[in-house]
């Protein structure tokens, strides 16, 4: 358990350059994400959204400033963080079940425990019926659910998701959004999410951060006060439309900044 008052993710004046004389990709980013928040980063292509997630994951070093995850450095926090990428990145030669079990096997967990956890995760994402299938036998939405189940296997506190549903059709994506929120209600992770879809950002998030490019910096922040649980009806509400319009306007402004 974290001590009270420690933010789940804290960025203080973070700058990132790829090389000593390169222009900064991210400049003076300060952001506090509290436990249980669902925070989405929206911004034009190239403004540094993926880079920011990678810094929080400890996959790339910061140039200056500070990042802590539950009070730890990103590298030390790796055991409590999971990353879901846009392409499901499943291993084609392993079955669905074996893909989900991978992280647990690598951690050297007992075989019984691994089998049990894998089974309950497949139930959670509604894929028990294809446990013995290979990735090539699955639809895009199913592959993404396997990828999410795999990310949840290590019971992360913090989930970093980089455009996980970008390759899906709109109906499947809407359904996956609802499923993601249902899983989150059961498992209570803190989420840092990246998308290009304004509607997806508004639907999922408790807060949306809009970034401006060159260098990437925080331009606006929107609290999404739509009621929970969010359902298909949420998307049909006037409040939802108003927030989508507002975020779209701020995003256009950020493009011009
Ligand atoms: N490993 C790297 N080395 C050098 N430059 C990089 C590297 N990774 C990213 N960049 C640069 O950093 C900038 C931000 O890239 P990033 O992928 O974080 O943006 P993004 O906002 O996620 O873009 P998109 O929405 O298109 O995915 C880009 O100009 C990119 O070329």
Automatic annotation (TrEMBL):
Single annotated GO MF: ATP hydrolysis activity
Superkingdom of the organism of origin: Bacteria
Protein keywords: ATP-binding, Nucleotide-binding, Transport
InterPro entries the UniProt entry points to: AAA+_ATPase (IPR003593), ABC_transporter-like_ATP-bd (IPR003439), ABC_transporter-like_CS (IPR017871), ABC_transporter_ATP-bind (IPR050166), P-loop_NTPase (IPR027417)
Sequence ranges assigned to domain ABC transporter in this UniProt record: 9-240
Keyword field contains Protease: no
Keyword GTP-binding: no
PANTHER family, alphabetized: ABC TRANSPORTER ATP-BINDING PROTEIN, TAURINE IMPORT ATP-BINDING PROTEIN-RELATED
Identification of the protein by name: NitT/TauT family transport system ATP-binding protein
């Amino acid at each position: 358990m974290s001590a009270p008052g420690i933010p789940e993710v804290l960025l203080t004046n973070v700058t990132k350059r790829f090389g000593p004389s390169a222009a900064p990709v991210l400049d003076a980013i300060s952001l506090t994400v509290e436990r249980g928040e669902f925070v989405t980063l929206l911004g034009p292509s190239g403004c540094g959204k993926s880079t920011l997630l990678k810094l929080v994951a400890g996959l790339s070093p910061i140039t200056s400033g500070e990042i802590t995850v539950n009070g730890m450095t990103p590298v030390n926090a790796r055991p409590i963080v999971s990353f879901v990428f846009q392409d499901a990145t499943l291993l084609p030669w392993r079955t669905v079940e074996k893909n989900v079990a991978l992280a647990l096997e690598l951690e050297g967990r007992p075989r019984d425990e691994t089998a049990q956890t894998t089974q309950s995760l497949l139930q959670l994402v509604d894929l028990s019926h294809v446990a013995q299938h290979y990735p090539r036998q699955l639809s895009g939405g199913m592959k993404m659910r396997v990828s999410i189940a795999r990310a949840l296997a290590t019971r992360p506190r913090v989930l970093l998701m980089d455009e996980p549903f970008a390759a899906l059709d709109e109906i499947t994506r809407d359904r996956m959004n609802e499923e993601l929120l249902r899983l989150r209600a059961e498992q209570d992770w803190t989420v840092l999410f990246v998308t290009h879809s304004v509607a997806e950002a508004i639907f999922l998030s408790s807060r949306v951060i809009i970034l401006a490019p060159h260098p990437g910096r925080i331009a606006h922040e929107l609290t999404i006060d739509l009621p929970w649980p969010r359902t298909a009806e949420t998307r049909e509400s006037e409040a939802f439309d108003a927030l989508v319009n507002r975020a779209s306007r701020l995003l256009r402004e950020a493009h011009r900044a």
